Amino acid sequence: MASKIWNYLLLILILTLAGAIIRHEISYDRFSRFEYSVRYSGKDGTFIKLTDNHFYAKEDTFSVPDGESSVQVQKMPVPEKIHLVWFSYNDDAFYEFEGNIAAMTRDLGNHNDLRMEFGDKGTFSVTLSGEGWSADDKATGSYRGKKVLRSWPEPDPKRDKMVFFIRNKKEVTPYLFLESGSELSEIRFDPVTDLYFPSSEDYADSLSNGVLLHDARPAIIRLPSRFTLKFFRNAGMKPGSEEDLFAPLMEMMVSFDDDQLYRILKSDPEEKRFDLKINLDKDDNLKSVYLSAHNKVHRLKTSIVYARRSSG
Question: Each residue of 277-306: pLDDT tens digit?
């Protein structure tokens, strides 16, 4: 009799525990399947390459494809564990993280984004956003990977240049010299890191024949890989005349040789400040571009694309 009572109590205990587990799973929607996206990026000024990644969602596993920064997940449970390996160009090091993120992802639902943003020293954050999440109601968790020794999955001949340009921040003051007297409309610079990672352009000021184009803009830029110049070809025209008002707008895009830039900066890595002198001749053609610091002057190799547009 005592044995039957004990077996009965044990059965009740087992059923109670099973019910609690089922309720726990259901409360976190772990048996549900959703459509959501996973995205990753570097924080401002941080550049990384994800070399291996796995997201474990119950019996399912998915990854962000190589060369992509996001993946759209269709009808899967939310991921509970992740395994990441990434290379930080800022730190010139690999990092690895393997761990549980269920506390972060349990509220992930349909049409949500799971965003991973990587910082320096192996840090990254996980944020939920999208439908159902306001700007002030985002869930964010912070994590840190451990530095590991890894080799690249395949050779990358540009790696050394990328690491050098990203880690060695240079300040450049641009100067523009126009012989024709044409009217400068705009000058825009693309940072050299844009050759490898999309980044914002520098709409910096430039000392055009010694005069600032826009006082409100900084006169110092990041090391550029190219610049775009726009100017009205109205030299010799009477100001305010119909000819002057409809003067053609010339657009010139000038690209530098990143191998040459790398050799120049590598030869003197301690130099932090440079002058960039852009010279146009009396016919508004590019005459020369020099990069200089102290007594060292380097004439840069250039390739040019012109586009002439009507200003009317």
Answer: 999 888 888 999 999 998 899 999 999 998
Q: What is the CA 186 to chain-centroid distance, rounded?
A: 25
| 208 alpha-carbon distance from chain centroid | 31
pLDDT number for residue 11 = 60
According to the model, what pLDDT value does residue 28 have?
45
Q: Is the Cβ–Cβ distance between 108 and 128 less than 8 Å?
A: yes
The residue to which tokens 């890989």 are assigned:
225
Instruction: Name which of 150, 149, 100 is nearest 126 in CA terms.
Output: 100
Average pLDDT over residues 189-206: 70
At which residue do the structure tokens 């160009």 appear? 89
**Is pLDDT at 153 greater than 80 in this prediction?**
no
Q: What is the mean pLDDT of residues 142-171?
A: 86
Q: Are strands 273-280 and 171-178 parallel, antiparallel or unpaired?
A: parallel
Which of these, 292, 310, 298, 216, lies nearest to 257 by C-alpha position? Answer: 298
Its pTM stands at: 0.72
